[in-house]
């Protein structure tokens, strides 16, 4: 019986194979492509410089930039400027993030806070924060406070928006479940809302890190003795493009390092995803 | 203990969803609520358990719930409502936390409900690692952990495939037969209602009213026996006759233009 079914299923003659039409627009990982392309661009750039095709006054070679970076590190200039920048960025980012988290949380939970906060954010978010630096200098003096405040302000708004949006994205059925089990208000905030909003909050931090770095460099160019921004500005004024680009590389590495740290944090905190 | 709905009605804005529901859930009885989609079954269940405020009528609790009940009115949700960032055991601990049972007391309850629902080996798994059926077992375990007097089940098996549904239904009935409690079981599946319910409340299409309450006198333990199938089939016929036309009209309704 089984045999006969099999016979029926087998085609009498070998037919044409069915042509494959699937696959979709699938994106597959290509591990070595990115570093390869990066190395290729760098090599071409170095070759162009070595052959004299690129004017070193406009674009110094990668090796020259590396040498400038080494010189800055050896002379101690790199550390003085980098530590000044890190302190400013750290202070401003932590302050802005903390305030943004708090305001975003309150806006995510209370309807009245949402109504008022949304109006305030809509009015103030679009202001380029760097435009406020002169005012902040007037209020707080030329010292660190005005720069840290500028960075904090820049970080605050996207953080607040990311936080309340993340809270909005916490599935309401989970909150209803918690209420049906008589969980208290604070337990619902601590055990449902905050962990549920964490992915969105961490995604918001990726944005605020780059906003903070932008403001850091800009603020340091307006009025600072030390800092990577000041270092870059001084190199430009002295017509030292290799030093200038060394500063830019430091900023880029800083951004990459912070993004890597956030990636690690996501991997640990969002293990459940 | 009894749960009594008197003249319960609900409207979403100007749209009436429920009207004039009178229903009493007796101690240790399973009431199934069936009706066409959009008839307000889930709304009624939300009102019965106090997570939705009715716009008309009241729900009363007669008598005291058992003293050891931590959460007398406990839901089992269609979408499971598990916290994805907590393991199975920690999802159950979540609902025990406020009862301050101590570490040992909590662990004992968690172990007990995991054993009863066949989840011992999955205590440390995250919900995303589990199949739909296993997730709903966690939902059931979590509900049992608080020793409910009335279980409120909102289409608990609708998100599962047919085989899983069958298995879970039998396991749920096993649990129930060992420790009967009252339950309200909302479903759109007649066979499920006929398998679990002591009484089947049939609702009309929107605005939902109770059309009829059909008692099923066959004991749950006997409902799969061959000699009972004729009776079951007749009851199925009766129930289908009650909701067929309503379902046909409900199917053609466009939301918001009833």
Description of the molecule:
The complex is a heterodimer of chains A (273) and B (258). With 273 residues, chain A is mainly α. In chain A, helix 3 (62-75) packs across helix 11 (241-269), helix 4 (77-109) packs across helix 5 and helix 4 runs antiparallel to helix 9 (185-223). The mean pLDDT of chain A is 92. Helices cover 76% and strands 0% of the residues of chain A. Chain B has helices at residues 41-48, 88-96, 102-116, 132-145, 162-178, 190-196, 229-252; strands spanning 2-12, 15-25, 30-34, 56-62, 73-76, 150-154, 182-186, 199-203, 210-215. In chain B, helix 5 (162-178) links the parallel strand 6 (150-154) and strand 7 (182-186). The longest helix of chain B is centred in the C-terminal third of the chain and has 24 residues, at 229-252. The model of chain B has no long low-confidence stretch (mean pLDDT 92). The interface between A and B is medium-sized, with 20 and 20 residues.
Write the layout of secondary structure elements.
The complex is a heterodimer of chains A (273) and B (258).
Chain A: H1 2-9, H2 33-50, H3 62-75, H4 77-109, H5 111-124, H6 133-140, H7 144-168, H8 172-180, H9 185-223, H10 228-237, H11 241-269
Helix pairs in contact in A: 3-11, 4-5, 4-7, 4-9, 4-10, 6-7, 7-9, 9-10, 9-11, 10-11
Chain B: E1 2-12, E2 15-25, E3 30-34, H1 41-48, E4 56-62, E5 73-76, H2 88-96, H3 102-116, H4 132-145, E6 150-154, H5 162-178, E7 182-186, H6 190-196, E8 199-203, E9 210-215, H7 229-252
Parallel strand pairs in B: 3-7, 3-8, 5-6, 6-7
Antiparallel strand pairs in B: 1-2, 1-4, 8-9
- Unreliable stretches covering 5 or more consecutive residues of chain B: none
What is the β-strand count of chain B?
9
CATH level-two architecture of chain A: Orthogonal Bundle
Taken in chain order, the helices and strands of chain B follow as EEEHEEHHHEHEHEEH
Could you give a short description of this structure?
Chain A has 273 residues and is mainly α. Chain A has eleven helices and no strands.
């Amino acid at each position: 019986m089984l045999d006969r079914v099999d016979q029926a299923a087998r085609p009498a003659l070998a037919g044409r194979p069915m042509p494959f039409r699937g696959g979709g627009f699938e994106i597959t990982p290509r591990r070595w492509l990115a570093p390869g392309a990066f190395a290729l661009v760098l090599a071409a750039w170095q070759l162009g410089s070595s052959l004299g095709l690129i004017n070193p006054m406009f674009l110094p070679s990668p090796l020259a930039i590396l040498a400038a970076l080494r010189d800055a590190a050896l002379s101690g200039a790199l550390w003085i400027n980098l530590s000044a920048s890190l302190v400013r960025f750290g202070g401003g980012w932590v302050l802005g993030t903390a305030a943004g988290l708090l305001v975003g949380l309150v806006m995510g939970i209370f309807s009245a806070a949402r109504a008022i906060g949304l109006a305030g954010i809509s009015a103030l978010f679009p202001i380029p924060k760097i435009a406020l630096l002169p005012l902040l200098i007037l209020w707080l003096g030329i010292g660190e406070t005005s720069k840290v405040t500028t960075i904090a302000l820049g970080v605050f708004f996207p953080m607040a928006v990311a936080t309340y949006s993340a809270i909005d994205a916490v599935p309401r059925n989970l909150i209803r479940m918690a209420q049906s089990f008589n969980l208290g208000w604070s337990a619902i905030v601590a055990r449902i809302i905050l962990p549920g909003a964490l992915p969105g909050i961490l995604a918001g931090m990726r944005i605020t890190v780059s906003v903070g770095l932008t403001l850091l460099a800009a603020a340091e160019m307006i009025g600072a003795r030390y800092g990577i921004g000041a270092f870059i500005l001084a190199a430009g004024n002295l017509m030292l493009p290799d030093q200038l680009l060394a500063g830019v590389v430091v900023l880029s590495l800083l951004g990459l390092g912070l993004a890597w740290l956030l990636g690690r944090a996501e991997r640990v905190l969002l293990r459940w995803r | 203990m009894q749960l009594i709905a008197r003249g319960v009605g609900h409207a979403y804005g100007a749209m009436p969803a429920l009207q004039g529901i009178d229903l009493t859930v007796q101690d240790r009885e399973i009431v199934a609520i069936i009706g066409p989609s959009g008839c307000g079954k889930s709304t009624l269940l939300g009102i019965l358990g106090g997570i939705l405020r009715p716009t008309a009528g009241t729900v009363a609790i007669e008598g005291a719930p058992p003293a050891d009940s931590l959460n007398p009115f406990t839901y089992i949700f269609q979408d499971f409502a598990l916290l994805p960032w907590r393991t199975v055991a920690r999802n159950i601990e979540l609902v025990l936390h406020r009862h301050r049972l101590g570490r040992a007391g909590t662990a004992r309850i968690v172990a007990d409900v995991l054993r009863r629902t066949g989840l011992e080996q999955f205590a440390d798994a995250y919900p995303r690692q589990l199949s739909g059926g296993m997730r709903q077992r966690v939902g059931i375990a979590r509900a049992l952990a608080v020793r409910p007097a009335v279980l409120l089940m909102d289409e608990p098996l609708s998100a599962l495939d047919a085989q899983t549904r069958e298995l879970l239904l039998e396991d749920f009935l096993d649990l129930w037969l060992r420790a009967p409690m009252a339950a309200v079981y909302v479903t759109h599946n007649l066979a499920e209602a006929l398998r679990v319910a002591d009484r089947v409340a049939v609702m009309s299409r929107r605005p939902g009213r109770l059309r009829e309450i059909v008692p099923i006198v066959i004991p749950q333990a006997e409902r799969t026996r061959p000699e009972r199938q004729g009776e079951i089939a007749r009851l199925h016929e009766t129930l289908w006759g009650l909701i067929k036309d309503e379902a046909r009209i409900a199917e053609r309704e466009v939301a918001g233009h009833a």
